[in-house]
Amino acid sequence: MTHSSRPRETANLPESLHHRLDIYAMAASAAGVGILALAQPSEAKIVYTPANVPISGIVSIDLNHDGIVDLTISLFGYDAEAFMNATSIGQNRVWGSGHLASHLRAGVNVGPNQKKFAKGMLCYSISHGKRHTCKFMNEIDFRTGSNSTGPWAKTKNGYLGLKFYIKGKVHFGWARLQRARLLSDDWVLTGYAYETIVGKPIVTGQKKGPDVTVVQASLGHLARGSAAIPAWRLKQTTMITH
């Protein structure tokens, strides 16, 4: 949703107050209610958003809370099987090898790397009918009740490395996923973050410190597509091409 604003008079404010107002405005726009936990707001360079969203159907992520979807994580089924994908929008990319999304642990440096941010597969977006770049994360076989293949098949939690654009400039980020229960095939998005400095790498899992802003996301910033439909009952009607 876009908000119109009326021209306002410019006031001469101290530079430090300008910095604080800018950061507050960013947080308020992102969280709807402007909830912000911050040690030193004028020095913040990483924006972290905690979450607790089950992966079912399509979950859309707006990393920098500007109203533009940067990444979707989806779980769709074919009969007794389901596939989990990380799909980036436009020029954005997911860290991986070929068409597979890498399972990253905490402490990995995510930054400029042409090989790791290669395209992967082209997918048709179910929600928008457009072709985007997706990376395969996990194939689940409900007939056996276990994960079968994929970089995330035998893991309990992990991070996706992300490359995305803000006003034509490259930024890096991460998203964390965790199993809802031990030995289950249910995943939950538990949070995501991005580096506000153009082109600067980010370390997966970094969410505390004087240079981190914590923003509480509103429902509008985590759009759920087909979230009410169990993944194993949902038939994916789109084609995937290599």
Q: How many distinct helices?
A: 1
Instruction: Quote the beta fraction.
Output: 35-45%
Distance between the termini: 34 Å
How many distinct beta strands? 19
Cα Rg: 19 Å
Average pLDDT for all residues: 75
Low-confidence stretches: 1-42, 225-242
Number of domains: 1
Shape by Cα distribution:
globular
Largest sheet: 8 strands, antiparallel
The helical percent reads: under 10%
**Estimated structural class:** mainly beta
What order do the helices and strands follow? HEEEEEEEEEEEEEEEEEEE
Write the layout of secondary structure elements.
Layout: H1 15-31, E1 36-37, E2 46-54, E3 57-61, E4 71-78, E5 81-88, E6 93-94, E7 96-97, E8 100-101, E9 109-110, E10 121-124, E11 131-141, E12 146-149, E13 157-166, E14 169-179, E15 187-195, E16 202-203, E17 212-215, E18 222-225, E19 240-241
Parallel strand pairs: 2-17
Antiparallel strand pairs: 1-17, 2-15, 3-4, 3-18, 4-5, 5-11, 6-13, 7-8, 9-16, 10-11, 10-19, 11-12, 13-14, 14-15
Task: Please explain how this structure is put together.
The protein has 242 residues and is mainly beta. The chain has one domain (33-241). The chain has one helix and 19 strands. The chain has one helix at 15-31, and strands at 36-37, 46-54, 57-61, 71-78, 81-88, 93-94, 96-97, 100-101, 109-110, 121-124, 131-141, 146-149, 157-166, 169-179, 187-195, 202-203, 212-215, 222-225, 240-241. A hairpin with a 2-residue loop joins strand 7 and strand 8 (100-101). The longest helix has 17 residues, at 15-31.
